[in-house]
Amino acid sequence: MDKTANKDEEEMGSTVCQADSFRYTPIGIVRSPFTDTAGMPIQPAGAKGVRGTIALRPDLTAGLADLKGFSHIILIYAFHRSKGYSLEVTPFLDTARHGVFATRAPKRPNAIGISIVRLISVEENVLIIENVDLLDGTPLLDIKPYVPAFDAFSDAKAGWLDQTAGNAGSVRADERFR
Amino acid sequence: MDKTANKDEEEMGSTVCQADSFRYTPIGIVRSPFTDTAGMPIQPAGAKGVRGTIALRPDLTAGLADLKGFSHIILIYAFHRSKGYSLEVTPFLDTARHGVFATRAPKRPNAIGISIVRLISVEENVLIIENVDLLDGTPLLDIKPYVPAFDAFSDAKAGWLDQTAGNAGSVRADERFR
Fold first, then answer.
1. Which of A146, B14, B47, B82 has the CB geometry, 3.0–4.6 Å to B133, for a possible disulfide?
2. ipTM above 0.90, yes or no
3. Mind listing the pLDDT tens digit for each residue in A33-87?
4. A174: Cβ–Cβ under 8 A, 6 or more apart, which residues?
5. B57 alpha-carbon distance from chain centroid
6. Which residues of A touch B24 (CB under 8 A)?
7. CA pair distance B54, B145, nearest whole angstrom
8. How far off is chain A from B80, nearest CA to CA, in Å?
9. pTM
10. What mean pLDDT, rounded, does chain B reach?
């Protein structure tokens, strides 16, 4: 579909951008202390206590009603600094290569990231969040409430990460995924 | 950015589609028993044992290496039947209205969904999955490994959903989000 073909639909948000692709406009921007990928925490587990903010687009503020009751939220965002991708990558937590879909590496066919962060407060269109492992300026695509009944599978087996995921609290990013 | 301006980047996958928006091309398609939103399970918890398949684009098959070791995977996908959005919605699990970002409702500013499903098998570019709460034909945007150390927060507080999330196993969708 031509991206100018349906103005009404375009104004409503996400639209089909051309045949077989989807286009999303950020709902807001994440502010964090991290201005460079090198040296960043690689997961929220490595960013304990690190605070950041979300500045939601003011026209979407009403969508935050009742979010305050949730201790954790799921952020879906663009890895906006990621260019291109590899199907096999050597992730930060291992020395061996793995298929990119078996990793959380940012250089993915669709450079979309998810992070589960603590929600500290909501005031108007500004959220204060904690355990932030995102780059400053990250374009936010969606916020979803974290619901243990839907999302917490403590006994899940995590393949190659079963041995190494615990190191995510101390391992830092380097320049490999620039 | 004009969508035809940078062929190289376009060929690498996700690209900026125009100023301030991001475009993603599906990595594959989900096949499920659900051809209509009405009557569908509203969460994987309501789809226990329901099997589906993912047909990944054959050119991406190498990205599945080592995924077999994971019992659960996170699917990120387009709510492709969802048109427009409301900032406040009455979700399936409640009779009260809530801000859309405090719900998992599909009519969101960016109609992106996530589901955590069981991974049964991987053969070439085809994954068999279980607990599938997705429409047949859903365009898949990403697959990530589910890692309890990153993703399982059993003690998280879930606001209005703390009382009702348990009903997701029995409540079915209706036509409200078409």
1. B47
2. no
3. 999 888 888 888 888 889 999 999 999 999 999 999 999 999 999 999 998 999 9
4. A38, A39, A92
5. 17
6. 21-24, 110, 112
7. 15
8. 9
9. 0.88
10. 87
Q: Say which CATH topology domain B23-167 has.
A: Elongation Factor Tu (Ef-tu); domain 3 (2.40.30)
What amino acid occupies position B72? H
**Interface contact B157-A71, CB threshold 8 A:** yes
Q: Give the H or E element holding residue B54.
A: strand B51-56
Q: Which two tokens stand for residue A61?
A: 């503020």
What does the DSSP assignment read for A67-113? GGGBSEEEEEEE-TT--S--SEE--TT-SS-EEGGGS--S-SSS-EE
Owner of token pair 């599938």: B132
Q: Which amino acid, one-letter code, is at A170?
A: S
pLDDT higher than threshold 70 for residue A160: yes
A-chain residues near B81 (CB < 8 A): none
Domain ranges for chain B: 23-167
